[in-house]
Write a structure and sequence with these properties.
By secondary structure, the protein is α/β, with parallel strands linked by helices. It has helices at 4-18, 22-72, 87-90, 92-95, 270-273; strands at 109-110, 123-124, 150-153, 192-196, 201-202, 232-237, 242-246.
Length: 277
């Protein structure tokens, strides 16, 4: 006969045999930590890649909007700032006020949330009319509530010969530099139309040099010189293509009709040299 005392001893021995030792528990914890260390960077890269895909997709959508705009306006590009309208308002009928389409998913922090409205690599411009952004001032070519983190190539416009805007002015000597119509572009795959930018757009000049530090706004080209996507910036072109562009490559693109690639001593810019060409 098995007594109650014997049964208790047998059950106790069984539980003891199935228990983890402290060393086994530490080994399991170490393996889990190792797996997490391997997986977290991979998940981070996957997340970045997903944001890059979304960004390029949004730029591609805008390229199709520009195509529709040209078809509806005798192949013309939008008038731009001096026409008292801007790409965000000119193209509004084609994207139906879906405002977030103007945002790169990696640049969603608005300037009105940053002291002194100081831009950087991952900042978004706007919101127009917010009292903490440009003092609440809305340019006569803008519209209340507009925001985004893409900017247009300011030479890819068809502006009036005489500025209609009190907030922008074009030197008459610069009027021949505008592309005006898509048919004027001989190599549309080399002419940027829009891309990641600190502001809603600017007109790069051959004389523009790279900023001395990453994310610093020093001239028109620096607005686009942003390593948002693995050391590159996403751009879309007049041929409707969209791709990632190396920062050095920005100076070899044909921004305006008379653009000539400048010679730049890249050894002076260590922050750019650490990124892929």
């Amino acid at each position: 006969m098995i007594t109650t005392h014997v049964i208790r001893k047998l059950n106790f021995g069984k539980r003891k045999g199935l228990a983890f030792t402290l060393i086994e528990l530490l080994v399991v914890i170490a393996i889990i930590a190792l797996l997490m260390a391997i997986l977290i960077p991979a998940l981070g890269r996957a997340k970045d890649q997903a944001k890059n895909v979304v960004c390029l997709s949004r730029l591609k959508q805008f390229s199709l909007m520009y195509e529709m705009y040209a078809q509806d306006n005798d192949d013309s590009l939008p008038g731009g700032w001096t026409s008292k309208k801007m790409w965000m308002t000119d193209l509004l009928p084609y994207y139906g006020g879906t405002d977030d389409v103007r945002l790169c998913p990696k640049a969603t922090k608005f300037l009105h949330l940053i002291p002194l409205n100081k831009p950087g690599v991952f900042t978004a411009w706007g919101i127009m009319g917010n009292p903490d952004y440009l003092g609440g001032n809305i340019p006569d070519w803008g519209q209340e509530g507009l925001y985004g983190s893409y900017g247009v190539n300011g030479w890819a416009f068809n502006p009036p010969d005489v500025s209609l805007s009190k907030d922008d002015y074009i030197d008459p000597d610069e009027l021949p530099l505008f592309w005006r119509k898509k048919t004027n572009v001989k190599r549309p795959d080399t002419v940027p139309l829009m891309g990641g930018s600190m502001y809603d757009g600017s007109r790069p000049k051959v004389s523009n040099t790279p900023p001395p530090e990453e994310g610093m706004q020093t001239n028109e080209m620096s607005d686009f010189c942003l390593p948002r996507h693995n050391g590159k910036v996403n751009m879309m072109f007049i041929d409707t293509s969209a791709r990632s562009v190396g920062l050095k490559e920005l100076w070899s693109l044909k921004w305006h009709t008379e653009w000539k690639t400048p010679r730049i001593n890249w050894s002076r810019y260590e922050w750019i040299n650490k990124y892929p060409d």
